[in-house]
């Protein structure tokens, strides 16, 4: 939910990361995803993901290729 996404989003923004929230529907459930991007390669994204997870005290990052529509919606800032 939005409440749980705001604190890590603010922390990431304060540390210079480009952050946005996208919505997804997975198996009949609505999800909000805190995204950080955008990166040229999978390896670059994975390396940054490790840094972010360490910074946030989490243990898993999900690195994925986004759809062109998501890049167009969120990547133009």
Q: What report would you give on this structure?
A:
- The structure is a single chain.
- The chain is an alpha+beta fold and 77 residues long.
- It is built from 3 helices and 2 strands, in the order H-E-E-H-H.
- The longest helix is centred in the middle third of the chain and has 15 residues.
- It is globular and about 30 Å long.
- The two termini are 24 Å apart.
- The model has no long low-confidence stretch (mean pLDDT 91).
Shape: globular
How many β-strands, per DSSP? 2
Instruction: Return residue spans where pLDDT drops below 50 for at least 5 consecutive residues.
Output: none
Biggest β-sheet: strands ordered side by side in the sheet: 1-2
- The secondary-structure class comes to alpha+beta
Question: Which sheet architecture does the biggest sheet show?
Answer: 2 strands, antiparallel
Percent of residues in helices comes to 40-55%
Distance between the termini: 24 Å
- Give the count of helical stretches: 3
Strand content: 15-25%
Query: What is the average of the pLDDT values?
Result: 91
Using only CA atoms, what is the Rg? 13 Å
Order of helices and strands: HEEHH
